[in-house]
């Protein structure tokens, strides 16, 4: 009896492997439609417009940021592009909103707001930032130096 179960398991595993290995690789790519493509040096569509207000001390304004190659009027373009590259991965966007109904500290980070628009990793970007609670402050801070460092 034990021999029959082992033979059945081995046969089933072999048949499953044969069926999966015969499927084209493209069939798997369609199962992840919301995943951004990886950042590569060949991307020339990485262009963002960053508008900051209420940050004070000369940090307000509208800045253009180009990555791959680095350029634009952003005061820390290279560092900003490096930060975006580090935080872009499969299934994770550096511009994702704060988690709804998350556990956030009730603290106020000031009146600063930011709006980031453009294209990053071949995906459109239209993200708004504020500092109204701990989650929004953490979201802002995760994007420094794309957004200005407002400190503690």
Structural summary, described in words:
Helices cover 28% and strands 18% of the residues. The protein has 152 residues and is α+β, with helices and mostly antiparallel strands. The chain is globular. Strand 3 and strand 4 form a beta hairpin. The longest helix is centred in the N-terminal third of the chain and has 20 residues. It is built from 4 helices and 4 strands; from the N terminus they run H-H-E-E-H-E-E-H. It has a 4-stranded antiparallel beta sheet with strand order 2-1-3-4, covered by helices on one side.
Kindly report the spatial arrangement of strands forming the biggest sheet: 2-1-3-4
The computed structural class is: alpha+beta
Please report the number of helical segments: 4
The overall strand count is: 4
Low-confidence segments, given as residue ranges, are 1-43
Radius of gyration: 23 Å
Q: How much beta, percentage-wise?
A: 15-25%
Terminal Cα separation, in Å?
A: 69 Å
Biggest sheet descriptor: 4 strands, antiparallel
Question: Helical residue percent?
Answer: 25-40%
**Inertia-based shape:** globular
Order of helices and strands: HHEEHEEH
The residue-averaged pLDDT reads 79
